[in-house]
Design brief:
Blueprint lengths: L5 H15 L5 H16 L3 E7 L5 E8 L14 H10 L3 E3 L12 H5 L4 E9 L2 E10 L8 H47 L10 E8 L7 E9 L2 E9 L3 H21 L3 H15 L6 E8 L4 E7 L5 E3 L7 E2 L18 E4 L5 E5 L1 H4 L10 H11 L5 H16 L8 E8 L3
Amino acid sequence: MSQPPPGDRLALLYRLSQAFNSTLDLDEVLNRVMDEVIAATQAERGFVMLAEPDGRLTFRAARGMDQRTLEAPQFQISRSLVERVAYEGQPVLTSDAQHDARFSMRQSVISMGLRSILCVPLTIKDQVKGVIYVDNRRLTGIFTPADLELLVAIAANAAMAIENARLYRVAVEKGRLERELQMAAEVQISLLPQETPQIAGWELAARWLPATEVAGDFYDFLPCGAGSLGWLVADVSGKGMPAALFMALSRSLIRASMTAARALADGMAQANRLICADAANGMFVTLFYAELDPTGGVTYVNAGHNPPLLCGPARPQPVELTRTGILLGVDEGAIYTQRSVSLAPGDFLVCYTDGVTEALDATGREFGVERLAQASAAAAAGPAPAIADAIVAAVGEFTGGGPPFDDVAIVIVKKEMR
């Protein structure tokens, strides 16, 4: 193929650079690159392959002389040839691949009748981001070293335009994802209690601190009628959007099960069966659920959750409300039992998720149950909201005030002093 004079070549490269950079739509940039390359080299067809994060090359544009997209490009070129160019970062030119000793062992080259081939890397800062490949299956000798030199120059412009378009797509996708996460966070917040219930003789407080925009930990209050109240603290396995979606499902199933149950243990077993039926990818829920009874005591079921602490002025050591069954979503036939405890005036329950006790300081130490008990005892004389705030402050001081590594949910239920 005859090459343009140096001045015309510079004009061509300038025009192509403008064409490549006139849009930030990645697919359009890729197609323009391929159409212009085919026109400049008079190739029969061409392909752009880009490197994925794991190093694999994937087809992103496949075009013919008529500027139409080619179907099934993976069956139309020698994969080993383009992978060699991508791996070595060196261009390849052959005027007759059928008789080129470099490709005599490449069965795909022979079987597809490939003849004239040009393949050059797309390089940004010495990193190969992909390859441009053009060929002609009918004619030999149509590509020359001058064509290879021109294609290398075109590829330098194309690589920058492709990378800019790719980064723009990443930024747009990130912005869309952030908007979706914000909407998901707003929906999740709407699922949490909007107000803390008021029950005569009791003080209640709750705190919810997601580690990211959305969380798997949650709490809830359930009215039980006749001056009684149910509440729960739960922790869904995992983090981020999958945990948030499973949290919304679990909350609905737990609410329905516990509200309709004649006994707490029965309600927990029903919630477990429903969650087992819908749990996917090994997800599960740990849950502590309790209700105030008419006598002023508390009846509870602990499904594999961190044991809440029963603290009070007459209790030198807190009492742990240990587990009464396994976590939800693992064994649909699991059996749960319920227990009851009595609270004296001034006693309070600290119900929490493991984001509290597993919070880490700069040296990797955990906050732990002992520090939780100490923080609770130090604030025991105050109202329930002050106890909750004291725990949050203690965790924050311990971790150095950085963002939480895990979600945190806390519910404080305190019996008022008479």
